[in-house]
Amino acid sequence: MRLDLAYDGTDFSGWARQPDRRTVCGVLEDTMSTVLREDVQLTVAGRTDAGVHASGQVAHVDLKSDVDVAGLPKRLARALPADVRVFSARVVPAAFDARFTALRRHYEYRVTDAAFGAHPLRRLDTLAWPRPLSLDALNAASELLLGEQDFCAFCRRREGATTIRELQRLEWVRDGDVLTAFVSADAFCHSMVRSLVGALLAVGEGRKPVAWPASLLSLTARSSEVTVAPPHGLSLVRVDYPADDELAARAAVTRNVRVAQTSRAT
């Protein structure tokens, strides 16, 4: 069964279960296990860090066939806390895997350079930046980062995980005093989006040259010069999947690519 969900990450210690920490996965699995009276284990499209939000997260779970799938979101709404909601639930082919059949993930990062800071109603999902930002500089630097690259300079290293990713979109749009970064890739490594944003903000305010973020791609380790942007400006907004008859092929390709990339990275 596929679940489409959203959460306000402010009071969560990220997606993944952690001992003695409130996490999205922990809350969802515990609540669903109680409501459905069976053990629930979720697989998610992309694990988000502490404080990061999601409006278009996707997960899957194997459940007994007699579950009222259509009525599940309403049942869960009565049991879940207000900062997480399952919008829809539906039966999908067995080949569906929220993580490995995903084609790409889409994130948005919101920043405001307004002199007064973030609007009170958006303070939990918008970073207040104290200096004016140049949209042209942000986009010029972003364009140089596109394509398949080794983003190890922008990632927190995880043992056995590759840092090679295909960055498909990195574009900034200004609406008044709010700038939004639209970031899409086949997948992201740990802290990659926030690190990219942190580096680009240094360019946007004129502290670093346009070519600086792309120059870091030649490094073979995480750069100490890159400041990770705060988590609350970041939201996972959508995950793309292929047609049902292409799911198995996509999962095979993704797993093979990850193995090949890990070998290249090491």
UniProtKB/TrEMBL annotation:
It catalyses: uridine(38/39/40) in tRNA = pseudouridine(38/39/40) in tRNA. The keyword Isomerase applies. Substrate binds at Y107. Residues 6-100, 141-242 form the Pseudouridine synthase I TruA alpha/beta domain. It comes from the Bacteria. GO terms for biological process: tRNA pseudouridine synthesis. Homodimer. Belongs to the tRNA pseudouridine synthase TruA family. Formation of pseudouridine at positions 38, 39 and 40 in the anticodon stem and loop of transfer RNAs. This is tRNA pseudouridine synthase A. The gene is truA.
